[in-house]
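Re-running the complex after MR caught last week's input typo. The corrected sequence lines follow. Everything else is unchanged.
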Amino acid sequence: MKKAPLIAAAIVVVMLAAFPFLSPEVYYLSFMFSVFMYVILASSWNLIGGYAGYLSFGHAAFFGIGAFATAKMAALFELPPVLTILAAIPAGAIAALVAIVIGYPCLKIRGPYFAVVTLCFAFVVDLAVKNIEWLGGAEGIWMRIMDVQEKLSRSIMYEVMLILMVATLAVAWWVGRSRLGAGLRAVRADEEVAETMAIPTANIKIQAFVLSAFFPGVAGGLFAYYLTYIHPDVVFSINISILIVLMAMFGGGGTWLGPIIGAVILTMVNEGLSTFARAEIARIIYGTLFIVVTIFMPDGILHFFLKRNRGR
Amino acid sequence: MDAVLVIQSLISGIMIGMVYALLSVGFSLTWGVMHVIHISHAAFGLLGAYLAYSLLTIYGIDPVVSAAASAPLLFILACGVYRLLIKPVTKAKEVIVASMILTFGLAIILENIMALIWKADPRIMTPAYASGALILGPFYFQHPHLVGFALSIAGIAAVYFFLKKTYTGMAVRAAWQQPEAAQLYGVNLYRISMITFALAVSTAGAGGISLALLNSFEPHSHNLWLIYLFLVVIVGGVGDIVGTALAGLIIGTITGLSMAFLPFQWVNLVTFGFLMVFLIFRPHGLFKQGA
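Corrected-run output:
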């Protein structure tokens, strides 16, 4: 592995970690928090959606499961702040467990059918949580807030989410260069051929799916604690599922860097639009963006610029 | 459980199932013939419903008349959408993925244009006969429901007739079954795709109006409608008109019955759960053998 990219990445991480110490406004901390969150979501989605070409349109389900599991654990055991943050890890494990149960039958179906079944899965989970009183039902769950100044609590959450992002990206990097990644790419290129080449397709698809559910689950837990109140409509929204897909595809699915670029750009665009335009107009512009990207950059932004440079 | 109530829910279920079938026919065709998954299909249906709603409230025009009038309008609009947006996508490497993302963007645009024009409040279609009902023994049927049901039967029959009897319709079927062979026999695939897409969108408009006669609607209703589209099309088999109509009835029956026996909020849960199980065991539809 070349040294230069590693050093560059390390410098970026250190700079990001140092950012809260410059005592920026809370707004920027919150903004960066959501950028990190979407980078995590898009990059983990990319493991199954990008590398293997299995488009999950229900990834918000894992995010939401993580969020509700964390909130429920915090309420059940009356956890103090530090433990609540750590509870996001078992919550991610719960999301991963659900991914095994769901992935086993669902990963047998391909193409658009897989997209639809995952979309349905997200709806089912959302409706189920809303109708189960024990999980807070349609009213949602409140959590204890951190007993410190707002800026400090925001900075803590910022750093925690940054750590999770680095972990996710490290795993995504590793997957991209491992046998697992090569196998997933083979599945995407041609599943039948991959199978005849003795690649254990069913096995590696499950592995990728579970990994791609775990990190969103943990991120959901952190997000829940960050909001201190969660409601099914917020964390299970179909818009989150679709946004994850778009960010990854927009940046360039199946690459390591693509989802990062996509998540950063789209979060910024989203933020900018919602600040400067009315909600409806902002969403119309947002929708137009999807269209422009699919028509002019069908392989994502990354490929678009790489191809251009190669052309010269 | 009261037998009358069960039968009543069953009949309402069948009626709404037929409406879902009309809404789904076009979705099934664009998917089958063009390999385009048209996510904004339901949003176009909703647009039809809103147009009919405005015509009704401002000029007092009956929704059935609007359904007939909006069909050519949506047809022309859809031809434009096809030329500008869908055609470039059909040349992409992965048509299905690209089309899903592009039309999802289109759905967002349509939804928010509708939210701007008609505001986010839920609406109900109230034609002159809205309060009337047909009473048959212990059962009663609200007039708007009957009209919506009749409209969807007429719509599906029209599509079926078009595909089976007209020259263009046969070309559409040929393009679906054997695109290369159809081209050899002089079928212009580009024109056929445009006609299929535009026809699909105009049936979506009629379907949206029918559905609006049965249920209330708001700018984001198309998301839920979309799930039913997938449900009906996948159970019926992609591209199969008769299958779609039957699937509509089956799904209507299931929702109808679950409405009689379950609290309201569990109905959708049952429906989506059914779709998931169905997809896992019979992804190519109920009426087809294998892939």
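None of the earlier attempt is carried over here. The CA atoms of residues 191 and 201 of chain A lie 7 Å apart. The two ends of chain A are 27 Å apart (CA to CA).
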